[in-house]
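Re: the request from the purification team.
They wanted to know what the chain is likely to look like in 3D before they choose a buffer screen. I agreed to run a prediction and write the result into the notebook, where they can find it.
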Amino acid sequence: MAPAPQEPAVSALTGYQTGFRWDEPIPALAAVLIALQRANHATAFASWTVTTIGLGLIFQARTVWTAGSVPAVLLTGLLLPVLAMAARVTVLLVHAGRAGAGAAVGGAWRGAGDPSTGAAADDPPAAGLVTSVLPPAGEAGAELGSAEAADRLRLLTAAVQRREVLAHAALNWAYAAGVAFLAWSFLTTLLSAGA
């Protein structure tokens, strides 16, 4: 058998530059789609974790109530950090959803939010604050030139990157909340078996 031909490394190609250029929309859109896919996976798993914690609390509520007064107070006190972490995950997921929703709908100001004012992606700009001179997406008769399309691509990229950062932060908090809930569940089982 003859060995398979070796393809040269991408970095060995002449003229290759890392990253993408704004005037080449296909690689830029591919990078945006990959980032959006990663954000969606992180969002789905973090949401599943919070839902599982909620269902676990429903199933173990009777165990906590029948454990006696001292263990019940102890278990309730140990449950508060788990609930706080789950609430943090929920808040991060809401912000991640808002960060990406504006870019998908379209509009001159939608997408990236404004870090200087704390405005979310769906919030209209403050009075007197000019964020873009682009016409809203989908407006009849509005054809985008290359500069306008590059600006829209930058807004979309910023929105998706913000969504990805928030979704991964939610995922990290969800991992911590899941581990804390498993430890709490184990302690609940031990205390109820000993009572």
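For the purification team: The helical segments are 25-65, 69-105, 146-194.
Please add any questions underneath this entry.
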